[in-house]
Specification:
This protein has about 475 residues and is an alpha/beta fold. It folds into 3 domains: about 140 residues, no CATH class; about 120 residues, NAD(P)-binding Rossmann-like Domain (Rossmann fold, 3-Layer(aba) Sandwich); about 190 residues, no CATH class. The strands form 3 sheets. The chain has a 6-stranded mixed sheet, with helices on both faces. Strands 7-8 form a two-stranded antiparallel sheet. A two-stranded parallel ribbon has the order 9-10. Strand 4, helix 7 and strand 5 form a beta-alpha-beta unit. Helix 1 crosses helix 2, helix 2 crosses helix 3 and helix 3 packs antiparallel against helix 4. It starts with a helix and ends with a helix.
């Protein structure tokens, strides 16, 4: 759900008006200065006014400009506007201007420079005014980020007082959450929201935007557990640095008035790549479902002949942000394979049907999951989804596993490519390391690499 919808709506409206005005100014300047013709309105002007602003808005959406309006700052806005204007001007040139009848190629050069210059200035100036006003309101406390302090000890009191003494404070503290049950020294300064055991409920009920963990970064076990529960969505997580963090360069300064904090959950995949990733998921799934229909039919017949029971196997898995969904597979085991309770399969598992062994080798049993990708439960590439039964066991050993549930699970993953199917919880933990590595380094380029490796595994029938 988009936060601050009124701010987003107003910003989009501002960009739409800017795009409309800049296109009209470009049309006027091109006619009178470049083509040396009298200004006369035409159908091309009206079509441009109707279509061009929509093209610009789609481009800005792909850039991620509207993703988190409150976290925009002026330098970032100038950078986004410049890059967007370069890409948009080139795209509009090839879409709308290249076929125009001209007296010489210099008209093309002048036109694209004129389009860039007008659009950049007309768009940037109102954007800067909007963001400047917004930043001042945030720093004044009227629109600050709703923030909770996690921890109620002397350290929490210290960081709270330090932040409140800053000349420009972006945080609007709504309360604190204690960790040890007895540490509640902040009660004289902030409302007590509850214990760490109720963390998720407190965050949801209070629409929290920022969480500051008042623990030393050397308290790794406590930090890992809390951060694993916090990560996901648009919540910004900050912790206190120790001297090693400062010397190693982990502390990033973005504001000279800011408190000395480390932001943990910096998204590695840019918003425009996340948008393209989802678009690619949908398009590839549609094409795959259509092209694989003959294979689906052949597999359905093979499954039905090999053993009695349904063709498809549906099982509840845990997806993005802990939401349960039904994963779809071709059935590769005999019916009632888990009548004694949840069991992971092994290489020589007697529960696997004869055709099921070949399907698993070629990963054919996973192909129906293009449907899961299409409806948004999964992605083409992402950590493999597991059952809650096994997740509960894994997080007792390694709470960091919860990081993997903050993104859409995938048909294939780096862990699946490097490790294959897991036969027990220990192997799940080994595979988790690869998926965590993917999560901290994910890009579209890495997704493409994983998909290529997956195709090689299918071709060579080396699936484990």
């Amino acid at each position: 759900m988009q936060k601050h919808p009124l701010l987003v709506f107003f910003f989009i409206l501002l960009d739409w008006c800017s795009a409309l005005i800049s296109w009209w100014l470009f049309y006027y300047a091109r006619k009178t200065n470049i083509e040396q013709m009298p200004y006369i309105t035409s159908d091309s002007l009206y079509w441009g006014i109707a279509i061009v602003p929509i093209i610009w808005l789609l481009l800005y959406y792909l850039q991620g400009t509207y993703h988190d309006i409150k976290r925009l700052y002026r330098f970032k806005l100038v950078n986004l506007t410049f890059i967007g204007t370069v890409i948009g001007s080139i795209a509009l040139f090839f879409l709308l201007l290249l076929d125009d009848e001209i007296s010489g190629y210099q008209v093309y050069y002048k036109s694209i420079i004129l389009l860039f210059g007008i659009h950049f200035l007309v768009t940037l100036i109102p954007r800067l005014i909007f963001v400047t006003v917004l930043v001042k309101r945030i720093q004044s406390g009227r629109n600050g980020f709703s923030t909770v302090l996690i921890g109620g000890s002397d350290k929490a009191v210290e960081i709270y007082k330090e932040i409140n003494q800053l000349p420009k404070n972006i945080y609007r503290f709504i309360g604190f959450i204690n960790i040890n049950g007895v540490d509640r020294q902040l009660e004289n300064d902030l409302p007590y929201l509850g214990h760490i055991d109720d963390l998720e409920r407190i965050l949801q009920e209070n629409n929290v935007e920022e969480a500051i963990i008042a623990l030393e970064s050397t308290e790794h076990d406590k930090l890992k557990s809390i951060v694993s529960r916090l990560e996901g969505g648009d919540l910004s997580i900050k912790i206190l640095p120790d001297m090693y963090d400062i010397l190693s360069g982990s502390v990033k300064m973005t504001n000279i008035f800011g408190a000395l904090l480390i932001q943990l959950n910096v998204e590695t995949m840019p918003v425009w790549q996340q948008t393209l990733k989802r678009l690619m998921d949908v398009l590839v799934s549609i094409v795959a479902i259509i092209l694989l229909l003959p294979l689906y039919l052949a597999m359905a017949i093979a499954v039905k002949i090999s053993s009695p029971g349904p063709i498809f196997f549906l099982q509840e898995r845990i997806g993005r942000n802990g939401k349960a969904f039904s994963i779809v597979k071709f059935r590769t085991m005999f019916v009632d394979a888990e009548k004694l309770g949840p069991q992971l399969s092994s290489a020589n598992d007697p529960r696997i049907t004869p055709i099921g062994k070949y399907m698993r080798k070629l990963r054919l049993d996973e192909f129906p999951q293009f449907y899961n990708v299409l409806i948004g439960d999964m992605s083409l590439v992402g950590p493999r989804p597991e059952r809650q039964f096994y997740i509960d066991q894994i997080i007792q050993i390694e709470p960091q596993y919860l990081h993997l549930t903050k993104v859409r699970p995938g048909i294939t993953s780096w862990g699946q490519v490097k490790y294959g199917y897991a036969e027990n919880v220990d192997q799940m933990l080994q595979r988790m390391k690869f998926d965590l590595l993917y999560l901290k380094n994910r890009t579209l380029a890495l997704d493409m690499k994983i998909m290529l490796y997956t195709i090689l595994i299918i071709v060579k029938a080396k699936g484990k």
